[in-house]
Specification:
With 408 residues, this protein is α/β, with parallel strands linked by helices. Helix content is 42%, strand content 19%. The chain is globular, with a radius of gyration of 25 Å. Its cofactor is pyridoxal 5'-phosphate.
């Protein structure tokens, strides 16, 4: 049974009392930066489970028969779908088992278990985890809840589109992240029924460009991405035909663009977004000409990002902006030289965060030493001013590396 608009409307009514109506906020800063007439953010990261996935999971759970509820359900997921299933099964008293691949971050495993699910980690890949889940479903008589290729799941995700149309009518464009395609297909069914339907653009990772509409003849991308929520090798058999029919285009962004989008959302909007959730912004920032003078909505699909990954991304963002830099300074290995060099940095407004004094393990003359200094600055021009001051004082100095040179 293929989903349709009536199923989306029925799903929205069924789940209305149990999921958040997430806000849509306007971002004048983004409109100014990109040349769009207006930019709006649909904040699905504010769902209790941290992503839109709770919608489709609940709609599928509500369709279980009494016998299926008693036996329990099983799902496969590396994060968001797992938490959506666990949340609503825990609330409704339905036994839930979730198979998560071995690479799943510990925080996501812990959150899923905290909602009451029995978490089993198995499989090196999502495909292996799904295979294991199907084996357990057959052995234990459990109902398998697919993360995206299920009509009721698609219909539940489509409730995001119905909300967005009510909250911000007459949009010109909506940018939606696509992995397996459940959110994209559901929202397309809802939004295409509008009197003046918006142009729909999907966004994927360059590492998983399964629906991107061009010949991908460049060098192969690594089969990994910061946007693990859309790291799906094959779109759904139910979702792909809907996307092919209703989307204007599907484009890809790389991890650097996604990183920069995560940093922008955090710094400028105080919004925490995971990689997949930031992908629509990454596309807008990468292709602003496509959305010039148009009213654009971005679906921030989730905010379940690992704290360590978020910290690393923010630090790398500071480096790219010139607000953190690692300087290498050559000094004489004599009393007072270290103090003098660091005092010069302070006199020019630099804040030293780390100092490594190298004598033995660097290829330097025996009566010399090298300082590796991590310094906080206002921008890249400020860093250059500090380097100039050091050189004029007789200290050979240079900036080292890039974001990758900083410790995590």
């Amino acid at each position: 049974m293929n989903p349709d608009l009536r199923q989306v409307q029925a799903a929205a009514a069924a789940i209305a009392d149990h999921v958040a109506v997430t806000p849509v906020i306007q971002s004048p800063q983004l409109a100014l930066r990109t040349g769009a007439a207006q930019v709006f953010l649909k904040l699905e990261n504010l769902q209790h489970s941290g992503s839109f996935k709770a919608r489709g999971a609940l709609n599928r759970i509500l369709a279980l028969s009494p016998a299926e509820r008693k036996a329990g359900v099983i799902a496969m997921s590396a994060g968001n779908h797992a938490q959506g299933v666990a949340l609503h099964c825990g609330r409704l008293g339905i036994p839930a088992t979730v198979v998560m691949p071995l690479f799943t971050p510990v925080t996501k495993v812990q959150r899923t278990a905290a909602f009451g699910a029995n978490v089993i980690q198995a499989g090196e890949t999502l495909a292996e985890a799904e295979q294991h889940a199907h084996v357990l479903a057959a052995e234990r008589g459990l109902t398998f809840i697919h993360p995206y290729d299920d009509s009721r799941v698609i219909a539940g995700q489509g409730s995001v589109g119905l909300e967005l149309a009510r909250q911000q009518p007459d949009l010109d464009d909506v940018i939606i992240p696509i992995g397996g395609g459940g959110l994209a297909a559901g929202m397309a069914l809802a939004l295409s029924a509008e009197p003046s339907p918006p142009r729909l653009t999907g966004v994927q990772s360059v590492s998983f460009p399964t629906l991107v509409r061009y010949d991908h003849d460049g060098p192969p991308s690594p089969a990994q991405t910061l946007a693990e929520g859309i790291a799906v090798k094959h779109p759904g058999s139910r979702t792909k035909p809907i996307i092919d029919r209703l989307f204007d285009d599907v484009l890809a962004v790389d991890d650097l663009a996604i990183e920069q989008a995560i940093v922008w959302l955090m710094e400028e909007q105080k919004i925490v977004a995971e990689g997949a959730g930031a992908a629509p912004l990454a596309l807008l920032l990468s292709r602003p000409e496509r959305f010039h003078d148009r009213r654009v909505a971005l679906v921030i699909s989730g905010g379940n990002i690992d704290n360590r990954v978020m910290a690393s991304i923010l630090m790398r963002g500071l480096v790219r902006a010139g607000r953190l830099a690692r300087l290498r300074i050559e000094i004489s290995d004599a009393p007072g030289m270290l103090a003098h060099a660091t005092a010069l940095i302070a006199e020019h407004g630099g804040n030293i965060l780390e100092v490594h004094h190298q004598r033995l393990f660097q290829d330097v003359p025996v009566k010399s030493a090298e300082l590796d200094v991590v310094v906080e600055a206002t921008d890249s021009g400020h860093v250059e001013a500090m380097l100039t001051a050091l050189r004029q004082a007789g200290y050979p100095a240079r900036k080292l590396g890039s974001a990758a040179s900083l410790p995590e």
